[in-house]
Design brief:
About 45% of the residues lie in helices and about 15% in strands. By secondary structure, it is an alpha/beta fold. Helix 2 crosses helix 3, helix 5 packs across helix 8 and helix 6 packs across helix 7 (about 200-225).
Amino acid sequence: MNFENYLVSHNIRFRPASTLVKSIASSRELLCLYEKRAFPDDYPHHEALNHLANMSALAAVVLDSIGTPFEEQVLKYLPLVQAGDPGLLTPGRRSRGRDLLFELVCAFNCNKFAPGATLQDPPDVLATHRGRCWGIACKVGYGKPETVAGRVSEGFRQLRRVNVDYGLVAVDLTNVFPHDRMYEVDTESRAISSLRYLKGQSLRLGQLLQETAQPIERAFLRAAGRTRRGPGVGIMFVVRTLGYHRATRTVMGAVLWHPCWRVALTEAEAFVGDFNKHWQGLAWPQSHGTVNTENGDD
């Protein structure tokens, strides 16, 4: 069963003007043109590929959940993401649809390594991993670092309202990540030998993710101080962007873990490591990810 047939069979209908409908139409057109090898000279390849990558990731969540306990949650959330701009890959304005879709994908991802993970507000996702109950507050970043840091603080407050062993705030940085800088050549540091290869692109992705996350971390810690309140132990920044592999577009994903306090470091790194492995699977046609770990403050 394909994605569109699934939506029809469950009577899920999105608004004609919604971004999801536009993405489905754009993806259908792109695949048709690809089969015919008939691309117009002015065809917007980059935009169309973003739409296709978005749809492929969402379709993976929906179709992989068929026949599993998580399917019920997918069916509940799909109609809720119809409004706004719920792309997993493309930047866009703030919308409830985008926020809900990130929650859905996080819960789906957690189910891969923590079966039984569920959507619950607050915080947003609950999962049992290696005998410990984890709470995940999901936030999509918009605007300046201070604005995103405010959303992180909101996530930690959500975690204080639930009875869990540990918690983390997952932040989607797609909206604030500098996608257009992915192919800049770093002339001072020779760490990137060639951006034609995935290794160089992965290094660049990790560098830019760290550059994007650091001002947010600093702004959050300035506001939060050094006193830990509640079960929250750190921030998990995630991002996805388009890359090239042997002249083929591919989706690249990266996860950056920042422990805010020296609590449950081993447990947290294990959880984030498992999350990253499965985060890489939500891609078209393949993805490559990195986990960067840095020391937090006491």
